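note to self — DONT lose this again. spent like an hour looking for the file last time. sequence + predicted structure for the chain T wanted, 109 res
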Amino acid sequence: MKIDIKKIKFLKDLKRFFWFLGQNLFLSCLAFFFLALIFGAFIFYKYSIWLPKKEISVFQDFSPFQRNVYENILKTWQQKEEKFKEADSKEYLNPFKKKGSAEESEEGE
């Protein structure tokens, strides 16, 4: 089944619109540029001028400082730091040396 584009009015008008844009490329680019400029000015106004004027109450739902939670977190960090320091001081065996070569090198020195 073949769809005939000429019978569908919307597609016909859309095709004519794109041909118009192509034939008047300079005016089309100029129009799109001004639309983008207006959209950019609106976004700039919204986030740089209008939003700072509006009072924002951030600290209304602020919960008070919970000392016991802070101490638990601090204790956890200290435990992790101690484990990290233990791992730093621990000496591991070198897997690339032969078992007998370590003793021979110590005797040679």
